[in-house]
Every structure is written in structure tokens, then in C-alpha cells.
Design goal:
The chain has 394 residues and is α+β, with helices and mostly antiparallel strands. Helices cover 56% and strands 14% of the residues. It has helices at 3-37, 151-156, 171-202, 205-219, 223-242, 250-274, 278-286, 291-302, 304-320, 323-328, 346-353, 360-393, and strands at 48-53, 57-60, 63-66, 72-74, 80-84, 91-96, 107-112, 116-121, 124-129, 138-143, 160-161, 167-168. The strands form three sheets. Strands 4-1-10-9-8 form a five-stranded antiparallel sheet, with no helix packed on it.
């Protein structure tokens, strides 16, 4: 096989690898967006569903079910549910009001022999028949389909109560995410740029190489380690400094996130500064500028593309951080502007609740992922637009 054939082979190999990478990324995004949009366009089920617990046999609207372990679905057009048990033990007749908006008023029990009707959570009714002991009570759960959720209510709602009331408002979590991220950027980016300029322009090359290796090592530390450090050091420091009952606050999250983005921003910015040609430094110094003036007014503007890329990566890491924020932020879904109050971020909500979420709750967590992706996309687009404006003005 000659060199030409080898080049053609690797060209096709790289093309296929790139194609599969793009398709895989597109499939992931499509799946997340599809799952995240479902709660706003579809109901959770096509009709009312029944779940029998410790009931071996029952007749629903004339159909006999024995040892039924899955959902018993009642079609949408049914106006009533008639439930009978063997040997005439008990009966349950329910009327359905399809037009009623309030889920607590959708069902009207017309006949209920020896059963107790309860409303344990939104869109769920439970009828219980007593057994010999409480643990052996027979139960029939009537699950109403949840209608499509209002998108504006989802984005602007102030309450997040997914279990009992099926209320999904994420505005406090959006605010917590943005406040923690912007606070970390405002605190961390200036420090990172100062460090990068010092390493690239003023520190001797041998010492700078040692410092660079240490910073790159810090960039590889897992986020949970930063979170543990924040929990053991930053949280007690904030609590004792401001005399708070708990140091798990927005301020703690900001400090930890600022520490986390420092290595990334410093490494990329310092690399961009060192890549600036020596000729522009010599030209500036020959015109009488000091070394500090050269660094700030010549080298830094020349490397603004790499610096802005570093800031974008820092913002993406701050917005998408999960474990460290869970450990130090307090995770209270409340709307607050005080840095001394507990907050919850979008990523924290997904990480803490995905393990046990189901149904509409699980779909809403995918919707949070879509919102998070949109926030990062908007922020990065704004920064890139700002960079283009700077280049045009220059």
C-alpha cells in the first residue's frame, strides 16, 4: 500500500469518525429536547388509570381483571367508572367530570361501600378497604392524566413541589444558577487574568513553568473535591464571619465556583498571552511604554480572542457545575438576592431528584436540562457577539 492509498484511507476514516460524532451529538440533543418538550404538549396518559394493591380480582365497567399487576386504563370518553368485587364484597361507582379543571373535583363518588376515599397527591385518588391489620389494607389508586403543563408557569413559577401538588416552577433555580455563576465570574475572572498576565509577562520562565504545571494539576481535580473543601473550610468560614445559623449559602457557592474556574481561565489565558509575538512587545517598549503598560494595552488586547475563550469555558463550568454546588449552596428552592441565603441551581435539582423521579416529574427534569443548555448557549452567544463588536471597533 503506497502513501497515496494510506492518505485516502485515513481521510475516509477521519470523515466517518467525524460523521458518527456529529450524529451521536445530534441524537443526544434530539433526545433531550424531545423529552424536555413533552410535558408542554402531551398529557401523562391517554385516560384514567387504575392500580390495584392487594386486590386479586375486580370488575371494572363489566371487564373482569384477575391478579392484574399493571395499569387498568379507562378510555377518555368514559363518563363513569363502575367497580365491583367478587361475592358482592364491595362496590364503587364514580362519575367523571371531564371539563373540570381542578383535579380534586374531577371525580364524584356516587357509591362507596366500606371504603375510605383520600387524595394523597395531585391527580391521584386512593380508595382503601380495611384489612385485619393496617399493613393488609386493600387499596385502589385512581390516577388522573395530568394535562400539558403551562410553559410560562414553568419558567416563571416560584414554587417547586413535584411530589404532592405537581407544581413545577423553576424561576428561583434559574436565578440561583445565574447569581452563582455571575458572582463566580466577577470574582474569579479578574484574579485569573492578573495571574495569567503575571505568569506570561513578569515571572521568570523556569518559575512560570513550575507554576503552570501546578495550575494544570488543579484543573484536573474532581469537582467533588472542591465541594468537600468548600464544605469543610468555606462554609464554616462564612457561617462564623457573618454569624449565620448555616454557612451553606449563595456566597459559599460563589467562592467555591470562583476557585474552580481559576485553573481553567488561567491556563487558557496564559497560553494566549504567551502566543503573542515578541515583536509587538519590542515595538511597545521601544516607544517608551513600560512593561506593565505593554502587558495591559498591547499584549492583552492582542490575545483577547483566547482570553474570551477562557471566559466562555469558565462560564460553562460555573453554570454546569453540580456536585460542589450541592455540597455548599444549601439547595433551598427559594428566590433570593441575598448572598447569605441558601439557593438551589438547575444542575443541583437534576442531580438530586433524577434518581427517584417518575412520570411528569422526570419529564420536567429533562425540561430543566433544556433550559440549562439554552442559558449556556445564550451566554456564549452574547460573549461571542461582544468579541466581534470589539474586533470591528478595533
Amino acid at each position: 500500500m503506497n502513501r497515496k492509498h494510506i492518505d485516502v484511507f485515513f481521510k475516509h476514516l477521519f470523515s466517518i469518525a467525524a460523521l458518527f460524532s456529529v450524529l451521536a451529538l445530534g441524537a443526544i440533543l434530539l433526545f433531550v429536547f424531545a423529552q424536555g418538550s413533552m410535558p408542554f404538549f402531551t398529557s401523562t396518559a391517554d385516560g384514567i388509570r387504575l392500580v390495584a394493591q392487594r386486590i386479586d380480582e375486580l370488575t371494572v365497567n363489566g371487564v373482569l381483571y384477575q391478579n392484574h399487576t399493571t395499569f387498568i386504563t379507562i378510555p377518555k370518553n368514559e363518563a363513569s367508572i363502575s367497580i365491583r368485587f367478587p361475592s358482592g364484597e364491595s362496590a364503587l361507582d364514580i362519575a367523571l367530570n371531564i371539563r373540570e379543571k381542578d383535579p380534586e373535583k374531577k371525580l364524584t363518588v356516587m357509591r362507596n361501600d366500606d371504603g375510605t376515599l383520600s387524595y394523597p397527591e395531585a391527580y391521584v385518588y386512593t380508595v382503601s378497604w380495611p384489612g385485619t391489620i393496617a399493613a393488609l389494607d386493600r387499596k385502589l389508586h385512581i390516577i388522573l392524566p395530568e394535562p400539558p403543563y403551562n410553559g410560562a408557569k414553568f419558567l416563571t413559577g416560584l414554587d417547586w413541589r413535584p411530589s404532592r401538588d405537581k407544581v413545577f416552577g423553576i424561576f428561583p433555580m434559574i436565578a440561583g444558577t445565574l447569581l452563582a455563576s455571575f458572582g463566580a465570574i466577577l470574582l474569579g475572572v479578574p484574579i485569573a487574568l492578573l495571574c495569567a498576565i503575571f505568569m506570561a509577562e513578569f515571572l521568570p520562565s523556569k518559575i512560570a513553568s513550575i507554576a503552570r504545571a501546578g495550575i494544570e494539576l488543579l484543573a484536573g481535580i474532581p469537582s467533588v473535591v472542591y465541594g468537600f473543601f468548600g464544605l469543610m473550610v468555606i462554609v464554616p468560614l462564612v457561617r462564623n464571619t457573618f454569624h449565620l445559623p448555616s454557612g451553606n449559602t449563595l456566597l459559599s457557592a460563589i467562592i467555591v465556583l470562583a476557585l474552580m474556574i481559576l485553573p481553567t481561565v488561567i491556563t487558557i489565558a496564559e497560553t494566549s498571552l504567551r502566543a503573542a509575538p515578541l515583536s509587538i512587545r519590542e515595538a511597545s517598549l521601544s516607544l517608551g511604554a513600560s512593561k506593565m503598560q505593554t502587558a495591559w494595552r498591547v499584549v492583552l488586547p492582542h490575545a483577547n480572542s483566547g482570553v474570551i475563550a477562557a471566559v466562555i469555558l469558565g462560564i460553562s463550568r460555573a453554570v454546569g457545575e453540580t456536585m460542589a454546588v450541592i455540597l455548599v449552596a444549601g439547595n433551598s428552592p427559594q428566590l433570593t438576592l441575598s448572598p447569605l441565603e441558601s439557593v438551589r441551581t438547575l444542575t443541583s435539582t437534576i442531580a438530586m431528584e433524577m434518581g427517584y423521579a417518575s412520570g411528569r416529574h422526570s419529564e420536567m427534569l429533562f425540561s430543566i436540562g433544556v433550559v440549562l443548555f439554552s442559558i449556556i448557549l445564550i451566554l456564549n452567544s452574547m460573549i461571542l457577539w461582544f468579541r466581534r463588536r470589539m474586533e470591528m471597533d478595533a
